[in-house]
Design brief:
Layout (H helix, E strand, L loop, with lengths): L5 H9 L1 H4 L12 E5 L21 E5 L1 H12 L11
Antiparallel strand pairs: 1-2
Helix pairs in contact: 1-3
Length: 86
């Protein structure tokens, strides 16, 4: 089933185990930045489950490359009719 949520795709790229237990897809953590948090998490920070959270006072934020990749993935349409193979 195609996922329509940008947040789902970002979590899946950061660590596929978060969204798909047992996935063999490698993580693409290089598309994200771990940075010191301000007074509160930024709006663009990933909402990581506790078992995948980074140390207190830090947050994980997607780099522009990650956002562009997710935009591309969301733009792919799976509803185009496919002719039957002969």
């Amino acid at each position: 089933m195609r996922q329509a949520s940008a947040q789902w795709h970002l979590l899946h790229l950061y660590n596929p185990q978060i969204t798909s237990k047992g996935s063999i897809m490698p993580p693409y953590a290089f598309l994200f930045e771990k940075r010191k948090m301000g007074e509160k998490p930024s709006a663009e920070a990933l909402a990581l489950p506790p078992e995948f959270a980074v140390e207190a006072g830090y947050e994980v934020v997607p780099k522009p490359e990650a956002r562009l990749l997710v935009e591309y993935l969301l733009s792919l349409k799976a509803n185009a009719p496919l002719p039957e193979a002969k």
